[in-house]
Amino acid sequence: MRKLIKAFVILTAFAALAAAQQPNIPINTTPTQPSIRPEANRKTGVTVGAEDKSSPKIGLRRPTKKEMKAVEPSEEDKTKYAEILKMSDTGLFKLVSDINCDANEKTDKRCDDLTMPGHGAMYSFRLGRHVGYYFCDIKFKENAIFAAGDSNLGFFVKAGDVPLDKVSRETLGAAYVYDFAPPTELEDILKNFKAFQQGVENSDFTYKSAVLAAENTTIIFRLIAYRKEITGERQQQLRDQNEEMREQGSEIDKRKDIIVAFRVVRKDSDGSITILWRELQKKDAPVFRVKQPAK
User: Fold this and answer.
1) Taking the domains of the chain in order of start, what are their residue ranges?
2) CA distance readout (Å), 12 to 9, 67, 151, 233
3) Least C-beta-crowded within 10 Å: which of 14, 95, 141, 266?
């Protein structure tokens, strides 16, 4: 029983750490230990009323064309970057600053136009579209971009003013991103999570789980969307759920280990940003394990 309790606490802490990025804390400071109480998630878009935001049917719902008008990149940007967008695994999208539309007390009228999953502030490079918090890779708030999502470990590095089509493993600062070996023991993942919150120094570069949304700068991002080792009845439940979603034409979450390079190509007066990106590498993500205490 003690082993089960310890495993549950660690799993809960991992989810809480991922959800509790604090945009109001300066990027160069260390956030305090987040709460693991259930109500702490209410402000991070996990549950609203009777809606379970961790449900794929909600968080992975494809936004409608009407909803996407609120976050549609400008025609000027589409034309300007048309050549690079012809390359495979590239994209252009717009993010609005998170205004906590998932909170039970919606006070901002802008939320009325931001009804898509994630409310326009969250994006998945793995799926190439806006999604809800549990399934996103990044979240944008108060001019900062955060590695986000459930059971994800991510970090950024600024590579300077390098054209996206020129970014590779040989780009200064990129080698660490490519060579980072994802830990698989849950306690080690948590240690790395906290380390990237503070900033990891390597060869004159800093690797962090948050980065300011600066123009004229290429940012390289590594995101490990860990797979969970699930067996028994729960495994069959997930299989049935995925099959149902496929039959409905819905897309299921893709648990991958990816590296992307992106640039903030526009910052609008309303605080929104437009991001141009290119995928550099993608592979299956590792499975995380809970280390059992010695008997």
Assistant:
1) 2-288
2) 5, 32, 10, 20
3) 266
